[in-house]
Amino acid sequence: MAIHLTKESKILVQGMTGGEGMKHTRRMLAAGTNVVGGVNPRKAGRTVDFNDRPVPVFGSVTEGVDATGADVTVVFVPPAFTKAAVTEAADAGIGLAVVITEGVPVHDSVAFLAHARRRGTRVIGPNCPGLISPGQSVAGIIPADITKPGRIGLVSKSGTLTYQLMYELRDIGFSTCVGIGGDPVVGTTHIDCLAAFQDDPDTDLIVLIGEIGGDAEERAAAYIRDHVTKPVVGYIAGFTAPEGRTMGHAGAIVSGSSGTARAKQQALEAAGVRVGRTPTETARQVLAALDAGA
Prior knowledge:
14 strands; 35% helix
């Protein structure tokens, strides 16, 4: 099994005919992902050939869903059009919308996330790398060749650290890796993924990657303490961040002691989470936790 994405998932790509959409659609197809169509109203009716794999272009998400039964969309459209794209996907009955776009205005994110929730559409992102269930499917920009199927679940704010931990633990492998994005407002949280991994019989251990700023990791720690019985290993990016600076993601804003890496580490450790101070140390903590449970 996996969470949110399996080999059965049928994927549309909104913005497939753009530069990034073309590049990553080709990579998704090479990884075995079932991409069933693209969406571009100006190029509806055309077919794009990806290494002898023809993919039709539809004029709307609804047309794509009606023709293919698609249940996932990956959004590669400019920030100004992201709100309309996600709203359209939700109205078409898409179950999962993966929003790769960076720089989406926060007020747009708030609006389309509220609409998606009302429609029953899960959103991952915006400003995220997407998710991968290795050996099954990729929805987004996560490289498929740096790990293998296994029994670790990973949820991360950081795309780069997602890739690094996938590579560090490539000999163990993952059930699903989810990059939730680092914006102040995102559709899927650490807690959402923790709950899904806890319920997934093929996930034995969970890796949680956070970063300085906000209180998402503290809330995740409280959830772990009360609801998660599987071992959890954490890493917080930003232990060496200078005080008074905004670092990296839009959500990485520290005010006083609130949102610091140390405060998050303390909250997670109080909930029984092993926390590494570097990605490599975190990978070693995962191996130690797996050995302890063997």
